[in-house]
Amino acid sequence: MAQVPQRFFDALAVRTWCGLSLRALGRAREEIDAINVYPVADGDTGTNLYLTVESAVAAVEAVFAAYEVDDGARGADGGPSLADAVGAMAHGALIGARGNSGTILAQLLRGMAQVLTARGDSAHTEGAGLRLALRHAATSARQAVAHPVEGTVLTVASAAADAADGAEGDCAEVARAAYEGARAALVATPGQLPALERAGVVDAGGHGLVTVLAALVETFTGRSPGPVALPHARVEHGGEGVADATTAEECATQEEDGPAFEVIYLLEADDPAVARLRQRLDALGDSLVVVGGDGLWNVHVHVDDAGAAVEAGVEAGRPYRIRITHFGHGDAHTTKAERPPRERTQRAVVAVVPGEGLAELYTGAGATTLLARPGEPPASGELVQAVRRAHAREVVLLPNDAELRHTAAAAAEQARTEGIRVALIPTRSAVQGIAALAVHEPERRFDEDVVAMTSAAGATRHAEVTVAERQSWTTAGICQAGDVLGLIDGDVAVIGADVREVAETVLDRMLSAGGELVTLVLGDEAPQAVADHLEARVRDAYLAVDTVVYRGGRQGALLLVGVE
Q1: pLDDT tens-digit profile of 402-417?
Q2: pLDDT of residue 358
Q3: Which candidate, 10, 24, 31, 62, places its Cα nearest to that of 223?
Q4: CA–CA dist 560, 548 (Å, integer)
Q5: Given CA atoms 361, 363, 366, 368 in this order, what sign does their dihedral have?
Q6: Pairing state of beta strands 559-563 and 461-467?
Q7: Is 84 helix (H, G, I), strand (E, B) or coil?
Q8: Residue 547 to residues 342, 440, 502, 537, Cα–Cα distance (Å)
Q9: Longest dimension (CA), the chain
Q10: To pair with 554 at 20 to 30 A between CA atoms, which of 120, 167, 230, 305?
């Protein structure tokens, strides 16, 4: 269905563009992941871009939701102003930026926002304003990278700005020119970077930016310019990976050794401290990108000494949301001759778990685990690395989070291109994963084992008790920051003030439909008394139901509940 076009670049256009970009990256990210060979062939550029835009979308939607709830200051049309929307977009992308390309995209969006917010309370901008925004975006992104390299997303962004500069007319004409300029530059990237030429692919980050610009065209014209034509890429469309004998991983092994870790963190610091930080990190590693401003920065670098990179951040200010990824086996820094020649096991289970306690539980049951800290879901490349680490011919993948469905699917597809048989069970909670793991039998035929695990997970209802971070609309009404929320099967069902009362209400509602086993997983911030009370409640009111309690650690939610 055609998109209703926007005449001007206003708050609604920002919202539309973000939503279209997210959907377009969702369709393209497996393909983008598959061609990711520079600067590191870790197969997650598409997913990182998706997660970065997803964070931008959430921030923009929060602004619109706030205006729906609050009748306070509004833009000229009764909703958010252009400055409100682009500011939220840039901030959301900054705090959610993932990987090298995601961090650069965040700076591109921030550069646009700096121009558009400078226009004060203007309700919209026209073609001339969009041209200026695209030019400043390209310039600021290039300045954020310590050592800009041609043939990357920076080249594509500059080409988009150059083409936009020559466009006359409204936003639609400017957006179309920027897209065409970016697409032409993308096609030329293999001739600028030897790594791309050897692999026979275009730059993955540049492909992502062209996808985002295509969404900008659709915002103003109502129609997408269509899929990006990649005449040089040896990639089958649809996410099947590299089609000829040279895979991204095989190409990457031809590269020289490089740093072993990717370090990313948000940093609260002033400008002089960040200038010193750039110098120190530049001496420690490569792929340095520092984006942001006004006291908040997103820092990305590849280093051998991850601790030193974090310490540099501590000296500069207050780092948080720290993510350290080891590039591990099969990455750009390990040749095939260096890989251990151990024999693969026949079957393994790989699970994403939200806390250290659950990680210990899953590991004790024989699973390979990937820890997902609150607010920091793993990227596709991290899941692929976990699958490789399991070192098995067959892998059952448990994402344990509904939001990880697409990420896990992309990781599974990438692993399949490496000859690993992967079955993805769409578990939406760690308690469903526990149920699936309980019936796992490696001696069974793979398909039979997957069916049994899927059935066990599907038969387990899941709930969680958590604390609201901000005012928002829910399926149970409006909640305020600090309210205790009870979610059943992903939807808010109870809003209250007392953890124990909300947990009891949630449990009673779940058991009203029957059940034989209740699984309770307590987070670090949940008192043991809550579990004791719920156990007593089950004993007194549900005589035929058993209860098992685990400590989950820093899992985000106060309590996870499973009913089988």
Answers
A1: 888 888 888 888 888 8
A2: 85
A3: 24
A4: 12
A5: positive
A6: antiparallel
A7: helix
A8: 41, 21, 18, 10
A9: 76
A10: 305
